Amino acid sequence: MKPLALLLALVFFVLGALYGLGTINFMTKSGTEHAHHVSHLVICWVLALLCLIWYRFQSAPTR
Amino acid sequence: MTDIQALILALLQGVSELFPVSSLGHTILVPALLHWTNIDRANPTFLAFVVVLHLGTAVALIVYYRARWWAIVRALVASVVRGRLSDDRDERIGWLLVVGTIPVGVLGVLFEEPVRALFGSPAPAALFLAANGLVMFAGEALRRRQLANPARADRPIEHLSFAQSVLVGFAQSFALLPGISRSGASMVAGLLCDLDHEDAAEFSFLLATPVIFAAALLETRYLMAPGAHVVLLQALLGGVVAAVAAYVSVAFLMRYFKSNDLRPFGWYCLIVGVCCYILSKRGLLS
User: Fold this and answer.
1) What sign has the CA pseudo-torsion B48, B202, B62, B96?
2) What is the pTM of this model?
3) Looking at chain B, which residue has its C-alpha nearest residue A38?
4) Is the ipTM of this complex over 0.90?
5) Which of residues 22-51 of A touch B (CB under 8 A)?
């Protein structure tokens, strides 16, 4: 599961960056792109962070 | 927007955000009932006002549960540093809240705008409010059936599974529909996961706090909108009123759910929803 956690973290990070740059507009409302892209960027990066925490839980040495 | 309107909306937000009666539904239906045609819900200055009301509500929840949140955040940080999950109660609840917040976070960002564009008028809000009442009746009926089964027993919040937490979080996302209550939907889901009313309410309020707070923070851009300073005083006053109302509401509800259930709120939603729907069909809501 460790590679999956890292892969998902990377995917969400890149997805967030693409939303932030305005490269993708999937499920955003046209006309107010900037604000909506910020929301999408934040949620993607939060998910990326959670995937990294998931990775951390699998990587730490056991007792 | 007049000062009186601002105060009424602030009070309404603070109370109805936490009572299982849908704040969004009420902020659509009450102005329509009172024919407040001067309020433009899409106006950036009104949105700035709403942002402050939400911040006030979130702050009230954080203050009410300050000791719990402090313990949860410390336990979460400690578990990340350690790299292992432990049996600590606060840590377990913290991760349940994190996992339960994901569905509403993702669905909220993706679907909030289209859902509000589709259903953000009085008639659908009234129908969903009535449906919210029926959901609470159904939840209570299923809960009574569970209690009749001697093999099942109530469990504390920390004994929820992560899948059940996702289920409660997913139920919370139905509150994107105007008229469906965030706390009502998540409480019903909590009851069906064998929480008692008090724990279901507490988990619902804890789960709602980061969502309300994050949603308000993401909308703070409206505070910088041209003309937003015009409503600054109203917004600040409204934020304080919403915070006080929310604090009193959560304190009341936590006492109420020690020995009572959701049915009175179900009746309220059903009756008000049906009445408002009839009024909207007769053109009496503006």
Assistant:
1) negative
2) 0.90
3) B218
4) no
5) 27, 29, 35-36, 38-40, 42-43, 46-47, 50
